[in-house]
Amino acid sequence: MKNWKRMLLSLTISVGLLASAVPAMAAPQQTSVKVNDETVQYMVGAPINDKGTTLVPLRSTLDAMDVKLTTATDDTIRAVVNGKTITLKSKLTRINGVTYAPIRIVGDAAGYEVRWDAVTRTVLLVSKGGETETVQTGGRGFMWEVESNGNTVYLVGSMHIANDSFYPLRKEFEEAFAESDYLGVEIDISKAADEAQQKIVLDLGTYQDGTTLKDHISSETYTQVGDILKKNGLEANALDTFKPWVVESTLASLKSMKAGYDASAGVDLYFIQKAIESKIPVIELESYESQLGMFNNFSKELQEKTLKATLDNFDVLNDSVDHMAKMWITGNDEQLLELTNSFSDDEEYNKAMLIDRNVGMADKIDGYLKNGKGEEYFIVVGAAHYLGEHGIVKLLENKGYAVARK
To answer: With b meaning 16 or more CB within 10 Å and e meaning fewer, what string describes 226-264?
Structure first.
């Protein structure tokens, strides 16, 4: 698998952006809730995902947790847990007469550990210390800390697609996040389904001149695309209107989701959801326009080259993503550096995907460290951006900062 590393980086960077670009590619997947291994049966309403936050019918969910709801008005919930009255502050949503609330806030307050099973798309509520609790250690992952001028920046390396083996995260991540005033991410992918973002994807990712995919790639590559689509129960021409960089990401997304890896379980989206629920401001180091524009500006030759790498390795993509997941869970710096350095053999790809973006992100982080406001920032970007001669860690060290691995 000569090109698996390039394929993995492209996949883990772009899948969260583009998974919703082609809504006809897969049927909507429902989310379910389990309390100590018992599936919650909702007679009225059902769990929904709202920009990265799982909302659940409040009364039914509390009943399943043996919590008695007292009142729920505006942004205040009062309930009785083990004979004790608690008050929660959370934005409530009413849909068709049913009151919905973020499940993470409700579960945490009621004494449950909240987990996500990406394979079955199930929110798991597990009693802390209860007999049914399964011991999980999650992963070591990648985190660094920088302090300067009264400010602190935590640098977290994300894997943009993940599964339940990543969670719960180790306490250092949760503690650093809890102390932070801001969450910084490449882009806020909870907005991926917004009409404005979808328009950007479609404007940049589809042909506007009357041509189609087969006019821009070799007949061999086009045939490979069609064969894979048919094997996955789709029409061979289902992606004809899209450019090669969208086709690559869409195919990789389909394969990774079948293997149990999903952008909805990604490390960055996990923290975005927590920030939304905790009302912590989310700041973007990049933009949808810049990221999608980067892919769109790849040369015709490079777009087909990266698509071909995904096609040639499609049958073993599961093993490749498993390899990267293991690297993240073990926090293996050597493997991460090897992955990052493997892109230096393609100047165009390496410059666009890593070098230029790393400079821009490091400059923004430098600004956070220098603002003198005594603030803490929790920065989550793709893990491949941190190490190496052109990585964010080295760029910050070149600016005079001491960066400590945590």
So the answer is: bebbeeeebeeebbbbbbbbbbbbbbbbbbbbebbbbbb
